[in-house]
Specification:
The chain contains 2 helices and 20 strands. It is mainly β and 437 residues long. 35% of the residues are buried. The longest helix has 12 residues, at 2-13. A hairpin with a 4-residue loop joins strand 7 and strand 8 (222-231). The chain is elongated, with a radius of gyration of 25 Å. Strands 2-3-4-5-6-7-8-12-13-16-17-18-19-20 form a 14-stranded antiparallel β-barrel. It has a single domain (2-330), classed as Porin (Beta Barrel), CATH 2.40.160. 4% of the residues lie in helices and 63% in strands.
Length: 437
């Protein structure tokens, strides 16, 4: 019963909108792209194409669903603090949101299905430029944006001897907002002489990612597993409209200590919400492949390569400055003794995950590309275990931590992300045959 209650709470909580981040690079593309926040992927730096597990979700490669032997659910909370520094100083932003939701079901005979909700991208930027007109009027141009995209997926995996196949069908949806302002000074509170134009793009459409894995067992417990996963880049539909109005800045009437606030004229100079223009957004493809080796229920080590075709991104026929991204990922997992009993042996049942990655970012400033390097790790703390016949398993609370450095030394620009990913993974076995004594 408690599993049903927890599962219901997780489903309801993940129906909430996914919050957004604050990287200035989120102005490019549909925002800053998310990697998978499922613990099997996040805590090992993004490993997923070649990894296998019977009690954890790995949507990066849906062929892994064929390995499921337990009903598996996962959800959690994710937070990221971005420390930004350049020649003008240092600042930081923090964002917290629900990381993901997923549920996997084994179907027996080497088959499994899974579905869930995950964030795809996040957008939230704000910067300004100051200028002086020919009549010496000071002017400020402000560019900002918010919004983001999310993904609902549902997939199937099956195994034929040592070869596994799988696919995820997904639906991407969300909205991207671009806000442009031109501010002029005024001493007359009744004069609305500054201008704001907001462009809205509602995105939706169906896509597909697929994967293959091949496993070689060289003893009863040891294996080598190779895998490749591919997310197909394609165009999705957009519905676009504009809203524009005049505004001015005034001292806050009730609390002058707050300084200047924007007062907007309710009369719209442009409003196309009733006549949106249809367009398209081209989202990039991703291919990831690698090799893993390990011992069942003991340890696994992996190395993988990932390529993101970011240069193909377009929004309503506007080409972005994104370039292709290439990443090398390495990671490992170890469980000292998953079957150890007693409080004194608890530490032996903890899962220890660690992974790192490095490569180019795909983000350019004045033709100088930023580089990325990072490390993630997590511990899986087992909850109370249940024993059905000879099978021992249980659920776990995972505490994951990550560090990402994105730097451009030529432009003297640096971002340092500190990420926290706290999740709960629920495992259960359906249709238990009870024995009477």
């Amino acid at each position: 019963m408690r599993y049903k209650i927890l599962s219901l709470l997780f489903i309801l909580s993940n129906l909430a909108a996914l919050s957004q981040g604050n990287s200035p690079f989120s102005q490019f593309g549909p925002g800053d792209f998310y990697s998978s926040n499922f613990q099997s992927n996040f805590s090992r730096g993004g490993i997923g194409a070649s990894s296998i597990s019977n009690n954890a979700l790995n949507p990066l490669n849906p062929s892994s669903y064929s390995q499921l032997t337990l009903t598996t659910g996962e959800t959690g909370i994710y937070s990221s603090t971005d420390f930004i520094s350049n020649k003008n100083g240092t600042n930081y932003f923090t964002v917290a949101n629900l990381s993901s939701f997923g549920l996997g079901l084994p179907l027996g005979n080497g088959m499994g299905i899974a579905f869930g909700l995950v964030p795809y991208s996040k957008q939230n930027y704000n910067y300004s430029l100051k200028d002086t007109l020919t009549d010496n009027t000071p002017t400020e141009y402000i560019y900002s944006g918010d919004g983001g995209l999310s993904k609902i997926f549902m997939g199937y995996g099956f195994k034929i001897k040592s070869l596994s196949f799988g696919f995820n069908g997904h639906y991407i949806f969300g909205r991207l907002n671009s806000i442009n302002k031109v501010k002029y000074p005024t001493d007359n509170l009744l004069v609305f002489n500054s201008l704001r134009i907001i462009d809205f793009s509602n995105v939706n459409g169906f896509g597909l990612n697929t994967g293959i894995q091949y496993c070689i067992k060289y003893s009863n417990e040891n294996y080598i597993n190779t895998g490749i996963s591919f997310e197909i880049g394609k165009d999705y539909s957009t519905s676009n409209y504009q809203v524009g109005n005049y505004f001015n800045e005034q001292t806050h009437a009730l609390n002058p200590d707050l300084g200047l606030v924007e007062i907007h004229n309710t009369e719209k100079i442009i409003d196309t919400r009733d006549k949106p223009i249809e367009g398209q957004i081209i989202l990039p493809s991703q291919i990831q492949f690698g090799i893993s080796t390990g011992k069942y229920k003991k340890w696994e080590t992996s190395i993988e390569l990932r390529h993101n075709d970011f240069s193909t991104y377009q929004l309503n026929n506007e080409i972005s400055s994104l370039k292709d991204k290439n990443t090398i990922i390495f990671g490992g997992r170890i469980i000292p003794n998953s079957k150890a009993l007693g409080k004194s042996n608890y530490w032996k049942t903890i899962t220890y995950n660690i992974g790192g990655f490095f490569g180019n970012s795909g983000y350019h400033t004045n033709n100088n590309e930023s580089r990325e390097i990072g490390i993630n790790f997590a511990v899986g703390l087992p909850m109370k275990k249940f024993k059905y016949q000879t099978r021992t398993f249980g659920s776990s609370i995972f505490l994951g931590f990550g560090y990402l450095n994105r730097s451009n030394a030529v432009e003297d620009f640096y971002e340092n992300f500190l990420n926290i990913n706290a999740s709960i993974i629920l495992n259960d076995k359906l249709f238990i045959k009870r024995k009477f004594q």
